[in-house]
Design brief:
The complex is a heterodimer. By secondary structure, chain A is of the alpha+beta class. Chain A is built from 17 helices and nine strands. Chain A folds into two domains: 239 residues, Alpha-Beta Complex (DNA primase, PRIM domain); 111 residues, no CATH class. In chain A, a hairpin with a 4-residue loop joins strand 6 and strand 7. In chain B, helix 2 packs antiparallel against helix 3 and helix 2 packs across helix 5. Classes of the chains: A alpha+beta, B mainly alpha. The interface between A and B is large, with 48 and 49 residues. Chain B: One of its GO terms (molecular function) is metal ion binding.
């Protein structure tokens, strides 16, 4: 298998992007589901949530165009086909269509709502992964993303009560999360940063030890520990060999707060492998804690703290906090890798392999091989979310369903389905808002 | 300044102004300030009331830097101050007895002064934020001094009724509840009351993970009940402030009140620093030298990191770049300096393409053309904490004490002051620690000013090195606890500077909420 993967990746050449993008936007980009998502059950018109949404395009030569907005799916599709952006960012829903922002008076143009988003980037883990650095990833460190997705997803659902959560591969070295519940979209920046803080544990700054657990350990942290523990032996001991070399050992030993215990552990490390060393470390620390729980209370959670230090999700606060912060759109193509930002199925997160995500060049070949549509006119542009136009245009639009992109559409399709079912809940929220307002 | 005269005279004046003051108007000492006062007051009262309340708020502001909120020290100092300056805020509401005239008078004063200050502090988001924070501190302090029965009465009066969760529910979540806050064993859970509220009502508890969350609801223990109330109070007040700011233009024609109101602005906020005041004063060839003499530690460490690694990540470039602008490095020099340093790392081409925009942006030459103000200590301490690869932030807050000690040694701070600094850091007094560092490196006993802004630090240092007399207090937003003089005789400056320090979008969102309501 690895051989094939490498071949496939080699098949994408960044220089070919300008010639591939027109094909991608013409035949492959899933306009229907994409726009259905961002319409959120509204229709074109003054109530439309789509029309007031900011899109930003990055064009060839790093030209950046902000505040784009579109009234209909047709308009959106037409623009993409014309501009062929190498990157699409999604921003907030504003008080007025962003392209008309100059028509409204001074302060009236404001960001109102946006999905609650999270950005997890592998570069933030550079100090704890040995296999790769910077923009590089491999299957070994990708486990960190699986851990992060599991932890954050569970907390968003069980702790915060959100239901419509979309996870997306960022195309290169990370993942994005879009929480689409109406309640989530309406959160204030303050609430958003509170949520990030709740979810984050690693202390900021240049501290040697960045996780310290104290009693009582919050249920969220307990849950996180369970998730990390299920991956720990395979990930840290087998894949990373985190107690293999001397400099690794020095780093871990620094996390033991008691100097005597630290020395003792170090002595016992000689001539052992990672697994035995880890076992010994846990034994010695817990023995020291048991011997005098009052004096050695700092030693109680040493092994937990080490696990957290190495595996705990690292979130970018600023991406989440600002309502008007832009985030790369799902189904965008990453210009460096050519991979499409595909949805990730959380229930199968461990099976997700970033290296088998289809690249734009593969998709274009697949489209070429499949039967070419009869006409290449602008017929598909008439398509709006409500209008049912059968025949050619419909066929054209669903071409992505015939490519390997379809294999990744399931989480997105079920999100759309769920969102549809959630619409009646709107009235309830409105009521509770009224009650709380005074 | 004296308040009003004897009770007898006050009562006369009330009659004169035809004001009914009775228990119905002020049923409780604490209030949510729902209704604006609807009575006549004299200009003299207007100014006196506002001034006395401002003094209290300023005291709270300085106290928040020097003592941990709600610690014993904090409460003692605040009580002592109030006893001397504003005993009305120390009164707790007694239930079940007649309210004295004096008490009612204090309530009226509380009511009026709050609304006057709303007018004074609604003018910019920065002022609103400051006012909101201080009023909230005051409210919390007073709330905690009320008795259980009086609190119940307050809640009832303001329609803030919350029902505790049932015993069954408590038992069901007992394990989670007991691990969600301090001193809460499972046995304790059995005997405590919990309130189930949407998590957005207790964001401070969510932030610090001091509450159990389930399906979007927070289970708030009785002792954290204040969090719920203060969130409500905060929301209410921030909406009200935005409304007031919209109504304010109507006041523009009133030449009696406006000068008084405006005089409060200039003395309110400590973070504002005019980015233009030093323009062109510093040449980039001097930066190396200056970094050793006059830079605060936070800037020195970013400078050193930039020189060594030829790179700074985003917030490092922001923090240091804006600082450089405000000490007087021109845009041209700034571009030269950054290109020279970063170019060594990433190459001149990449710099010109990807980074020079941001520097021009900082100087207001790109994008929305805002001339950004340099970050204040509060911003550096509380916003954008550095990760492992970063060098920005406040070294007193964001560096472990061992590392900090080492750093101070390399920078040749005297060893006895190092100990003192480390102790201050451990007690969370980051700005005081910085002041100590200033004193130690400038061979002074005590620092001559309160450190609230890196650029202010720099200016003070330069003054001392050039042999000028230090000013003794902060600029622009100087703390003037003891000699507060409304400067309404002076011409009014419409400050053009825009402070981008604060999170605008929150206020913006609230404005929208209001307009939708």
């Amino acid at each position: 298998m690895p051989g094939i993967e490498e071949n496939m990746e080699a098949a994408y050449d960044p220089n070919s992007l300008p010639s591939l993008l027109p094909i991608y936007y013409k035949y492959i980009f899933p306009y229907g589901p994409f726009c259905k998502w961002l319409f959120y059950g509204t229709t074109a018109g003054s109530e439309s949530l789509f029309e007031k949404r900011e899109f930003s395009f990055t064009l060839q030569n790093d030209i950046y165009v902000r505040y784009q907005s579109f009234a209909t799916q047709a308009e959106f599709g037409k623009e993409l086909k014309k501009m062929n952006p190498c990157k699409i960012d999604i921003g907030a829903i504003y008080s007025a269509p962003p392209k008309h922002r100059n028509r409204v008076s001074g302060g009236a143009f404001k960001p109102l709502t946006k999905e609650l988003v999270f950005d997890i980037d592998m570069t933030d883990y550079d100090d704890v992964r040995k296999c790769c650095q910077g923009a590089d990833i491999c299957k070994k460190c990708w486990t960190l993303m699986s851990i992060a997705i599991k932890i954050i997803n569970r907390a968003l659902k069980d702790d915060f009560g959100f239901k419509n959560i979309l996870w997306v591969y960022s195309g290169r070295r990370g993942v994005h999360c879009w929480v689409c519940d109406e309640k989530a979209r309406a959160l204030s920046p303050h609430a958003r940063s509170s949520i990030v803080e709740y979810l984050s544990l690693i202390q900021a700054g240049n501290h040697e030890k960045r996780v310290s657990l104290k009693d009582p350990v919050h249920p969220y942290i307990r849950n996180c520990h369970q998730v990390i523990r299920s991956y720990w032996d395979q990930y840290a001991i087998e894949d990373q060999g985190f107690l293999e070399e001397d400099k690794d050992i020095a780093k871990v030993l620094k996390l033991i707060p008691d100097l005597d215990v630290r020395e003792k552990v170090e002595k016992h490390f000689a001539g052992k492998n990672s697994a035995e060393r880890w076992k010994k470390l846990k034994e010695i620390c817990s023995a020291a804690y048991e011997s005098d729980p009052k004096r050695n209370r700092k030693l109680r959670y040493v092994s937990h703290e080490i696990m957290m230090e190495f595996c705990f999700p690292r979130l970018d606060v600023n991406v989440t906090k600002g309502v008007n912060h832009l985030l790369k759109s799902p189904f965008c193509v990453h210009p460096k890798t050519g991979r499409v930002c595909v949805p990730i199925d959380v229930s199968k997160v461990d099976e997700f392999d970033p290296f088998s995500v289809p690249t734009i060049s593969e998709l274009c070949i697949e489209v070429e091989r499949s039967e070419m549509p009869p006409e290449e006119s602008e017929t598909q542009d008439k398509e709006t979310p409500d209008a049912e136009t059968p025949s050619a245009s419909k066929k054209l639009l669903s071409l992505f369903r015939k490519t390997s992109l379809q294999n990744y559409m399931k989480p997105f399709d079920s999100l759309l389905e769920q969102l549809q079912n959630d619409v009646p809940a709107k009235n309830l929220i409105a009521q509770s808002d009224l009650k709380g307002d005074f | 300044m004296q308040f009003g005269g004897t009770p007898q005279r006050r009562r006369n004046r009330r009659q004169m102004l035809n004001v009914e003051l009775n228990n119905d108007a002020y049923p409780h000492g604490l209030m949510m300030y729902n209704e604006p006062p609807n009575m006549n007051i004299t200009l003299q009262e207007f100014e006196t009331y506002a001034f006395e309340r401002v003094q209290v708020l300023h005291f709270l502001d300085s106290l928040s830097v020097s003592a941990v909120k709600n610690s014993t020290a904090y409460n003692e100092k605040l009580t002592e101050f109030l006893r001397k300056n504003y005993p009305g805020f120390l009164l707790s509401t007694a239930t079940g007895r007649e309210v004295s005239d004096a008490e009612l008078e204090w309530r009226r004063k509380d009511h009026i002064s709050h609304f006057i200050l709303r007018l004074a502090y609604c003018r910019s988001e920065e002022l609103r934020r400051w006012f909101l924070d201080k009023e909230l501190d005051l409210f919390k302090f007073r709330f905690l001094h009320e008795s259980q029965s009086s609190i119940q009465q307050f809640l009832k009066l303001n329609n803030l009724s919350y029902e505790p969760i049932s015993k069954e529910e408590r038992t069901r979540y007992a394990a989670a509840l007991s691990t969600s806050s301090y001193d809460m064993s499972e046995a304790n859970v059995e005997n405590s009351l919990f309130y189930r509220v949407p998590f957005v009502d207790v964001l401070n508890l969510v932030t610090s993970r001091r509450v159990f969350l389930f399906q979007g609801d927070a289970f708030v223990p009785q002792k954290e009940f204040l969090s719920i109330i203060s969130t409500r109070y905060r929301e209410h007040l921030s909406k009200a402030l935005v409304m007031t700011s919209r109504a304010l233009p109507q006041l523009d024609e009133d030449d009696r009140l406006l000068p008084i109101l405006k005089s409060f602005n200039q003395t309110a906020v400590t973070s504002a620093y005019d980015p233009k005041r030093n323009e062109g004063k510093v040449s980039i060839t001097d930066l190396e030298e200056l970094s050793k003499l006059s830079y605060p530690l936070c800037m020195r460490q970013t400078h050193v990191a930039l020189k060594e690694t030829h790179h700074l990540r985003h917030w490092g470039r922001m923090q240091y770049g804006l600082f450089l602008k405000a000490i007087g490095v021109t845009l041209e020099d700034s571009l030269k300096f950054w290109r020279q340093e970063m170019g060594k790392g990433i190459g001149i081409d990449k710099f010109d393409k990807q980074y020079s925009y941001n520097i021009r942006h900082n100087y207001g030459k790109e994008g929305k053309r805002t001339n950004y103000t340099p970050y204040s200590c509060m911003t550096i301490i509380t916003k954008n904490p550095p990760s492992a690869q970063d060098h920005h932030g406040c070294p007193f807050k964001h560096t472990s004490s061992d590392l900090l000690r080492q750093k101070l040694k390399t920078y040749k701070a005297p060893s006895d002051s190092i100990d003192e600094i480390i102790n201050l850091v451990k007690a969370q007094h980051f700005q005081i620690a910085c002041g100590k560092y200033f004193a130690a490196t400038h061979k002074m006993e005590e620092s001559s000013f309160q450190v609230t802004h890196p650029n202010h630090y720099f200016d003070e240092s330069q003054k001392i090195l050039k042999g000028e007399k230090p000013t003794g207090r902060g600029r622009g937003g100087a703390k003037q606890e003891n000699e507060f003089n409304p400067t309404w005789a002076e011409p009014i400056h419409h400050k053009t500077q825009v402070n981008q320090d604060l999170d605008e979008s929150e206020i913006e969102r609230m404005m929208v909420e209001y307009s939708e309501a």
